[in-house]
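Fresh eyes needed here. Have a critical look at this protein's tokenised backbone.
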Amino acid sequence: MQPAPSTSLSLRDALLTLAVMVVWGTNFVVIHVGVEHFPPLLFACLRFVFALLPAVFFLKRPAVPWSKLAAYGILIGAGQFGLLFIAIKGFIAPGLASLVVQAQSFFTILLAAAITRERVQPFQIVGLLLAASGIAVILWHADGTTTPLGVILVLGAALCWASGNTVARSTPQVDMLAYVVWTSLFAVPPLFALSWLFEGWPAIRDGLTGAPLAAWAAAIWQAVGNVMFGYAVWGWLLSRYAAATVAPTSLLVPVFGMGAAALWLGEPLPGWKFLAAGLVLSGLCINILWPRFAAIRAARHPPSS
């Protein structure tokens, strides 16, 4: 019988999670740079091409059924990033996209509860509600730079991300770097086909021949920073811990996303954004640190026999 997933992140794994959140948060600015010069579906395709090549020739295929490799690649590739990149191309501001996509944490927990019957702990519910209230503050103060279609596209991306999380968690004890590289094999064909169908060959040709160095650097960073580091670590964490422990940490992404947008894109940072960030961080602290405090308290005050 497989042991129950842990609900408490170790210090090392908490720091790894924080590093992934920094990479993913700042990545929304990088995406903004990329879709300024590449058609969005082509940019998403390039992301996974660079993740696949040349690494696939050096990493052994993980001992995972082809069906699960394909499911993860399609969900994360064509699903999450195809929809997200289209949304950021004029339908939603990068900072707001970094917020709305965090609905994946709710979708991940609900899918885990429905499929694997994981029990959501009371302290996790409290932490999630606190973090969700921070997101509500951001939504309340959102300006007119977004559209209903943009929100729908990003929510679809969030659902695909959560579904990909569920697939990754069903294949524990695998080399997650090899996993994300080999699943990229199934992300590239549908993304290129969709780009050809909806964006057309002239747009693909112009993007490939006319993009500046900064756009190509953005595409490579998508592969190295976000896929090969971010998703490898994220999938590895999901294979070791309960979904309700790992998924809410992604609520840090909009904090770093808004900060990066303020620094590089000049987006303002009024007081309400700091309030929202404080609520999100409070919820995350409860979710991550509560089990440690409970364990320390239990050790100091063992139940009397």
The chain has 14 helices and no strands. The chain has one domain: 11-300. The mean pLDDT is 84. The first helix runs from residue 11 to 37.
